Amino acid sequence: WVVGGAIALSGALSYGELGAKYPEAGGDYAFLSRLFSPHLGFLSGWVSFLVGFSAPVAASSLAFSEYLMRILPPELIPQELELAKKLLAVGIIVVFTLIHYFGLRSGSRVQNILTVLKIALIVVFVSAGFAFGEGSMEHFRPQNGDAFPAANPKTIGLALMWILFAYSGWNASTYVGSEVYKPVKNIPRSLIIGTFAVTVLYLLLNLLYVYAIAPSQMKGVISIGGLSANNLFNRSLDQLFSLFIALILLSAISVLIIIGPRVYYAMARSGHFFGIAGRINRAKVPGVAILMQSALAVVYVASGTFEQIITFLSFSLGIFPILVVIGVFKLRISKESILKMPGYPILPAFFILSSAVILVLAFLERPVESSIALGVVAAGIPAFLLL
Predict the structure, then answer these.
(1) Is the peptide bond preceding residue 345 cis, with omega within 30 degrees of 0?
(2) What confidence tier does 1 reach under pLDDT thresholds 50, 70, 90?
(3) Model confidence at 10, in pLDDT bands (50, 70, 90)?
């Protein structure tokens, strides 16, 4: 988690320099189109539309329904459980779509409330867990019963790819660059402070998980947070922490619905996507693009499971940030940078090399899912020519 945070922070510094130069909507799409080619920018936007935002909205909504069902007493759990989960996931998508359709100001207020709430809950849970929970420092040492095979480089690469997916919001504020107040100052600041804070929170949470649960007991457990609360305290706090994770997932759904449509809006305004996605509604937000993304997310929820949706997501999202950070070198060489971030050229090079190695190792470990992700990218080439 420390290594993943270091990679994300290196990327955030590079994106801060690019965001100051190009404070536009679109994130990777805007940067790659400006720095290299509209073709390359389109491919990043294409992946964002088909995978990068719609699929995480669907996966987070399904995860929200899973945790909410965990909270309910057995007598209230519906018989048609899978259908109920899907209907609940669709309902959450619809609610946040409506919130953000009617304006960034109202949407950002909801997002700020959810963010403050989840950070406060994480801090309280970690503090109480270490202070009063029934965990053990012995869990950090190898136990006789924990016979794990030695981790090979491919497994390490796959693990880091999933960790980087967890950090994948580190570049999010560049997607709404055109709507940021004083972008030269605030885009880099938001990227760096946000990424550093999330790194600390992830590290503390994972330390608490190991403190609470013996490694051998983690195998096959998805709701690791709930199990941690159960071990540290009791069943009632298991339910409370499951509610807390559900709130975190609401925040994730909300922010994805904010940033994704700005990519399609920027693409449409440049003539590289369906023109209707470039329309601004009365609330001065890209309303059609928001509806398009949410409709695709609903399709994902209806047609797939959490595992199916999220399988090829990490690989897809790991490709284009590498190309974007290469753009920092182009910006410096051409002497066009207006805000020179510290760490150049070491930190951008570290991000590029580590991210590339992780993708190669993950491909070797999971070739099928990675090939599907590459196929989605390749499908964008004829789509660009058509659109």
Answers:
(1) yes
(2) very high
(3) very high
The pTM of this model reads 0.80
Structure tokens at 270: 């440049």
- Neighbour tally for 123: CB within 10 Å: 12
Helices (H) and strands (E) in the chain, counts: 16, 0
Q: Taking residues 328-357, what's their average pLDDT?
A: 92
> What is the C-alpha separation between 230 and 240, in angstroms, rounded?
10
Over the Cα atoms of the chain, what is R_g? 21
pLDDT above 70 (res 106): no
Mean pLDDT of 236-254: 81
**Rounded to 5 degrees, what are φ and ψ at 194?**
-60, -45
The two tokens of residue 278 are 């470039």
176 — phi, psi (to 5°)?
-120, 30
CB 92 within 8 A of CB 246: no
Instruction: Identify the CA nearest to 41 among candidates 261, 333, 266, 280.
Output: 266
Q: Dihedrals φ, ψ of 354, to 5°? A: -65, -40
In this structure, the dihedral spanned by the alpha carbons of residues 113, 118, 123 and 125, taken in order and rounded to 10 degrees, is: 140
> Which residues 6+ apart lie within 8 Å of 23 measured at CB?
177, 178, 180, 183, 184, 187
Is 17 within 8 Å of 37 (Cβ atoms)? no
Give me the chain's average pLDDT, please. 86
